[in-house]
């Protein structure tokens, strides 16, 4: 028996299923830079010396 992918019933690996999802890739592409930018900004604000 052959399935639509041309294989013989082989299970598609989890990472391939994950990376074949365009909406998930879009979310990752938006969320990851935003999180890193926020962390970077917080670190910059924390590193500012206090005025006396």
Number of helices: 2
Give the strand tally. 0
**Roughly how much helix do the residues carry, as a percent range?**
55-70%
Ranges with pLDDT <50 over ≥5 residues? none
User: Main sheet, how many strands, which sense, barrel?
Assistant: none
Short account of what is shown:
This protein has helices at 14-19, 22-46.
Tell me what the structure shows.
By secondary structure, this protein is mainly alpha-helical. The chain has 2 helices and no strands.
Q: What descriptive keywords fit this protein?
A:
52 residues, 60% helix, single chain, rod-shaped, mainly alpha, 2 helices
What's the structural blueprint in terms of helices and strands?
Elements: H1 14-19, H2 22-46
